[in-house]
Amino acid sequence: MNGFDTIMDEWLTEQIIEEKNPRRRELLQKGLGHGTREFLRTIWYPVVGNLMHLYPEWEVRDYSNRYRYLDLAYMPSGAKGCIEIHEYKSHARDIEAWRFKDLCMKQAYLTLDDWMFLPIAYLSITDEPEACKQLALSFVGKFVASPLEYSLSWSENETLRFARGIMRSFSSSELAAHLQRSDRQARRIADKLVELKLLIVVDNKQRYRLYQLSNGARLG
Q1: CB contact at 8 A, 129 and 208
Q2: Please, which residues have CB within 8 angstroms of residue 3's CB and are 6 or more apart in sequence?
Q3: Could you give the 3-state DSSP secondary structure of residue 66?
Q4: pLDDT score of 79 more than 80
Q5: What is the 3-state secondary structure (H, E, C) of 69-85?
Q6: CATH of 149-219, one of 2.60.40.420, 3.30.1660.10, 1.10.10.10, 3.30.930.10
Q7: What pTM does this model have?
């Protein structure tokens, strides 16, 4: 058993021990689905570094008072994030009408109940892991702010908010347009955040740089 398997098993065991709800406890005792385990193993843990605030098979009730279970609930400081792993099967195009409608109703309920919903296809986990890692980081960034933000200026804070909301690297000209500043001013702001290790340079060509959030700024 490798290090991650040990961490996951300890995390799951702790959830089972602490769970008072017999319905959820029974689901947890059956183990996590393959898609959920692979998402945690290959996407979430490598970029987030822990399984804190994650609750598998989290139980909610919809407007019809039916029990529904989320693949993964992410709830730091009482926030409501839902990650659903959609596994693909050879007959997916022939999915039963009732199942399709039920999936749509589940997502609609979560959205109306103020859950932030992140659906991930299992094929994306296997075929596009880097894109999934970026989605996971951006998802976490919606809930977590950098502890250093209080000491930053408005333009520096706004730069971090801009960087969290964009799921790719960005240039100083894009930042300048967002901040309504000159390109030189935007470069100065971005370079200061690089010095503070809140941004990193991902392309350092002579004529322009591309920036993105550091992991510390996303998860701090």
Answers
A1: no
A2: none
A3: coil
A4: yes
A5: EEEEEECHHHCCEEEEE
A6: 1.10.10.10
A7: 0.66
